[in-house]
Amino acid sequence: MIAEMAAEGMGRNAAAPGYWHSADGLPYGYSLDEPAQETDPAELDVVERAAGRTMRCDIGLHVFVSDPAGRSVLGRLAQRVAERTEGWVFVEFRTPPAEDLIEDLARTGRCIRVEDYVYLDAPAMATWYAHPAFHLVK
Questions:
Q1: 21: Cβ–Cβ under 8 A, 6 or more apart, which residues?
Q2: Using an 8 Å Cβ cutoff, are 118 and 105 in contact?
Q3: Residues 108, 126: contact at Cβ < 8 Å?
Q4: pTM of the prediction?
């Protein structure tokens, strides 16, 4: 996580080491949590079976202001961290996603749909990040 935040050009806040700031001053942070802390155990089981391994932690990425530019950075970070760790990204949509979008995500990577949100592996997250409708729900 630290390497990816640094690669994004962020610097650690000396006064509060849990906070990072981008070159444009936006405040970011992350948390390392137990996998089932915010994920339903049944959903976690589905993701673990798809991944072929047990999830060791849940990484929460945060931008502490409501700024669309910050969400774009979170998308890039999430994709790169998922790639490095062979992890998955939880993506919530503002409105139910179109079937062709879900098919696109599943064609380029692995996509597990649960109601109006999905879990994406790194290749599918890269497709979502490059999609014209890309957004993150804060």
A1: 10, 11, 13, 27, 28
A2: yes
A3: yes
A4: 0.86
Sheet of 111-114, strands arranged across: 88-92, 117-121, 111-114
Token pair for 40: 């339903």
**H/E segment holding residue 7:** helix 2-7
Looking at residue 98, the DSSP 8-state letter turns out to be P
Confidence (pLDDT) at 19: 87
Look at the block and give the residue holding tokens 């993701």.
47
Which position has the token pair 């064609």? Answer: 107
Cβ contacts of 107 within 8 Å, gap of 6 or more: none
Q: What angle do CA 32, 15, 37 make, to 5 degrees?
A: 15
Give backbone dihedrals phi and psi of 20, rounded to 5 degrees, phi first.
Answer: -125, 150
Residue 138: the pLDDT is 61
Kindly list the averaged pLDDT for each block of 10 residues, start to end, along the chain of length 138. Answer: 90 86 88 85 88 86 78 90 92 90 95 90 95 83
Dist. CA 111–CA 119, nearest whole Å: 6
Do residues 91 and 120 make contact, with C-beta atoms less than 8 angstroms apart? Answer: yes
Using CB atoms within 10 Å of the CB of residue 91, give its burial: 0 to 12 exposed, 13 to 18 middle, 19+ buried.
buried
